[in-house]
Structures are given as structure tokens and as C-alpha cells.
Design goal:
Elements (H helix, E strand, L loop, with lengths): L17 E6 L2 E7 L3 E8 L5 E7 L11 E9 L3 E9 L11 E3 L11 E8 L2 E9 L16 E10 L5 E6 L6 E2 L27 E4 L5 E8 L6 H5 L6 E5 L2 E2 L2 E5 L4 E6 L13 E4 L11 H5 L3 E3 L1 E3 L5 E3 L6 E5 L11 H5 L2 E5 L5 E5 L5 E7 L7 E6 L13 E2 L3 E2 H19 L1
Parallel strand pairs: 13-17, 14-18, 14-23, 17-27
Antiparallel strand pairs: 1-2, 2-3, 3-9, 4-5, 4-10, 5-6, 6-7, 8-9, 10-11, 10-12, 14-15, 15-16, 18-25, 19-20, 19-26, 21-22, 23-24, 26-27, 28-29
């Protein structure tokens, strides 16, 4: 695969290209070749934010699940990227299931070539080529003799270079005729810059010998005010709620036995609703996604066992319960988490919760996580006294043990004394 940058020109001339606006912030342009198609995706996006476009998962409507799309973005390290994706389930990619690069799906390859990019006047344009029929079993043929339903989205790339949940998707059906005569229907890009928002305050829950039970469920991640703002990590769109709070920091006492009542979903064939709970020293989670080397670099403290051949499996999942939005997500309009929580409804599937018991033995920082997916959990601080305030740093010391504060007072006194003598 070849990567190169274009700074001052587009690979398509205005007279030959087709262009349609999928959204105020996503324009799709294309030119047909003999057995291939050249595509440009343009939008006002930041580094680490992606645009995606491709063929719908349905022949009669726009449908994300089952879609065959190309995801493009500018990576901080690798530069411009265009990657073939198989959206085989509405879930974060885990072991080839979910929104996955083709290279992570058995039998598939990345069939995107001739990648180039242009950044001008705040607009990012990334161009690439794909064969109309790649021969890949997981790629859809791009027909040029009829209207074809498409799928697209805009979102963030997580730190592993894989898509996180989109923040912008089609509001209805979108279809194109790739074989039409060239028509440019794209207007100028409007200013879609989002106004800044104030992150929600972090939440602290304490556990000691008088408070040993916590309930863990799945809920909405809270958009720009929630998970990402609190952790500095890109969210998939859902996260753990502990005792009805979004990813609180748990401050637990060493040597006390704690019980976690878990309702994360116990059907491994429903990837989007399968979130076994475990405790680790890994801030990312998703133990199932790690290879042998990566597993050796983290510690699992509870929620994972190993079979006779050393293969890991989760032990604690329970029925599935999720706090879902009542209509359109209201995180942008909610100044506090408590206000946002009032816009959610708890929905639970039939079944029973699971139970995880854990006695922390060592002081330090740990994490409650999802076994199958990354970036759903947050911190556990293990201490000897949950009510003891954190230690404050001592004042800086100048030679001889005199603090800066005392030195300043002494200096002030000398100046005043000198002024008196002059008078």
C-alpha cells in the first residue's frame, strides 16, 4: 500500500467528478474507471476523527449492520489512512465480530489502494481507489447500472487505531447511482464547529467494611461531557455504571471482601450486549482482544479463569441491563450527570445477575473493565483508610530547611528595615 500527501490540489477535476453531500460535514465524490472506482471523502474533521462511506448492509435501505465501508482518517503517527471495514455487528470489534477492519476478519483483506490526502481551509479530503468487484467474500460489489443504498458515519478513532462508536450517522436512507453522468451537487461546507462544553464532575464511591456491595450495569457514555472527558480515552458509546453512576472511581479498603452484582449480558453470540465484568491493572480492558504477549503485560485480579490448556474465559456476566436514552441523547444539553441520568431508562432482559467477590490485597490503582470490549470501565483505588484525605505535597524547600514562604517574609523584612534606615 502506498501513502502520499497532496497539499494544494485534488485528484479529481471539477468537470469530471460526481459529488453528493451525505451530511453538512461529509461530501462523497467519485470517478469511475474501467473496473475500479476512485472516491474522495471530505469533511471538517480533526486528527484522530474518521469519515466512513460504503455500501449498505441492505439492498432496500440504509443499514449499518452488514455494510461494507472504507474508513479514512489522519493518524498522528502513520499519516493518512484508508481501511476496508466489515460492519458485521453493531458492536466494538472483538475477535472479528463488530465494526472490524477486514484484516481482523477471517478470510478478508484490505482492498483499498492509491491513498492520498488534502487539507485546506479546515477541510480534510482523503482519496482512495477500490475495485468494483474485489473478489473478497466480505466485500460488496459496487454496481454502476442502478441506484445503490449507501452507509456512512463520522466518529473517533481509538488509541489502537480502530473505530469507536460514531457520533454522526444518516437520518434516513441514502442512495447513489455510481454510473450516472458527472454532476457536482455539493455545496460549500458550513461551519460545523461545536461549541465547547463543560465536562461532568468525576464521581467517587467509597467502600469499606460497612459498604461492600456494588451493582454494575451498562449505560450511555455521556458524549463529550462523560467518559471521554473523564478518562481522556475514546469511548465506544457505552460504559459501566456502578450504583447508577457513570464510571465512578471506586475507593476501596484493603483486606475487605467486596461483592459486585453484575448485569453485563451473558450471551456471547450477542456481541453488542455481552460485557463480562473483570478487575485488572489494565486501563484499557478487553482481555479477550489481547494476544499472548499483551496478556503477559497485564494482571487479572478477578473475573477471569483459565481452562486446563491455559485459555482464559470470563466468569461474571449475568443478564443484560442497560440505561438507554429516552429518544435523542441529551448529554450535550445536560450540565450535570444527575441531570443527564433523568433522561435515561433502565431496560433489563430476563434472567439473573451474576456475582463477583473480590478482596483487594495490595495497595494501588486497578480498573473494573469489560472482558470482550475496550474502554468501558475506570479506576479502583485500593487504600488502607477510605476516609483519609490524599496527602498534600510539602512546600518547596530552600537550602538550610527554610521554606520559600519564610524566605519571602525575611526578604520583605530586610527591605522594610533598609527603607527605614534610608529615611
Amino acid at each position: 500500500m502506498t501513502y502520499f500527501h497532496i497539499e494544494l490540489w485534488s485528484i479529481f477535476t471539477q468537470t469530471e467528478k460526481n459529488c453528493e453531500a451525505m451530511d453538512d460535514n461529509l461530501h462523497v465524490s467519485w470517478v469511475l474507471g474501467s473496473d475500479y472506482i476512485d472516491l474522495e471523502l471530505s469533511g471538517r474533521i480533526d486528527v484522530g476523527e474518521y469519515l466512513s462511506f460504503g455500501i449498505s448492509g441492505s439492498e432496500t435501505s440504509t443499514r449499518m449492520v452488514g455494510a461494507d465501508v472504507t474508513v479514512v482518517w489522519n493518524d498522528r503517527i502513520q499519516g493518512v489512512m484508508a481501511v476496508d471495514y466489515d460492519l458485521n455487528a453493531y458492536a466494538q470489534c472483538s475477535q472479528g465480530t463488530g465494526a472490524c477492519p477486514d484484516t481482523m476478519v477471517t478470510g478478508s483483506t484490505n482492498d483499498i489502494t492509491d491513498i492520498s490526502s488534502l487539507m485546506k481551509d479546515g477541510i480534510t479530503t482523503i482519496a482512495f481507489r477500490r475495485k468494483l468487484d474485489t473478489g473478497d467474500a466480505n466485500d460488496k460489489v459496487i454496481h454502476t447500472d442502478r441506484d445503490v443504498y449507501s452507509a456512512w458515519s463520522i466518529g473517533l478513532i481509538n488509541s489502537n487505531g480502530v473505530v469507536a462508536k460514531h457520533h454522526t450517522v444518516p437520518r434516513g436512507n441514502a442512495k447513489l447511482n455510481f454510473g450516472r453522468e458527472a454532476v457536482n451537487n455539493c455545496p460549500s461546507f458550513p461551519d460545523t464547529t461545536l461549541a465547547p462544553v463543560t465536562p461532568w464532575q468525576p464521581i467517587l464511591l467509597k467502600g469499606d467494611e460497612n459498604n461492600t456491595v456494588f451493582v454494575a450495569r451498562i449505560g450511555q457514555a455521556g458524549g463529550r461531557r462523560g467518559y471521554t472527558a473523564l478518562t481522556g480515552q475514546v469511548s465506544w458509546g457505552i460504559a459501566w455504571y456502578i450504583d447508577d453512576k457513570l464510571i465512578p472511581v471506586l475507593k476501596l479498603q484493603r483486606g475487605v471482601n467486596y461483592t459486585f452484582i453484575v448485569e453485563g449480558g451473558n450471551d456471547p453470540y450477542q456481541s453488542a450486549q455481552y460485557h463480562p465484568f473483570y478487575i485488572t491493572d489494565d486501563p484499557i480492558g478487553g482481555y479477550a482482544q489481547k494476544n499472548v504477549q499483551q496478556r503477559q503485560e497485564v494482571q487479572v485480579l478477578a473475573g477471569v479463569d483459565f481452562d486446563s490448556q491455559g485459555r482464559p474465559y470470563p466468569t461474571t456476566a449475568g443478564r443484560y441491563c442497560e440505561y438507554v436514552s429516552n429518544g435523542v441523547d441529551q448529554s450535550e444539553q445536560s450540565e450535570t450527570f444527575d441531570e443527564y441520568f433523568q433522561t435515561l431508562t433502565l431496560e433489563c432482559q430476563p434472567g439473573e445477575p451474576a456475582q463477583l467477590n473480590w478482596t483487594p490485597e495490595e495497595l494501588g490503582t486497578y480498573y473494573y473493565q469489560c472482558y470482550t470490549h475496550q474502554y468501558l470501565g475506570w479506576k479502583i483505588e485500593v487504600v488502607d483508610d477510605v476516609n483519609k484525605p490524599p496527602q498534600t505535597s510539602t512546600p518547596p524547600v530552600v537550602g538550610g530547611g527554610v521554606t520559600l514562604a519564610v524566605s519571602y517574609l525575611y526578604f520583605t523584612f530586610l527591605c522594610a528595615y533598609g527603607l527605614i534606615l534610608l529615611l
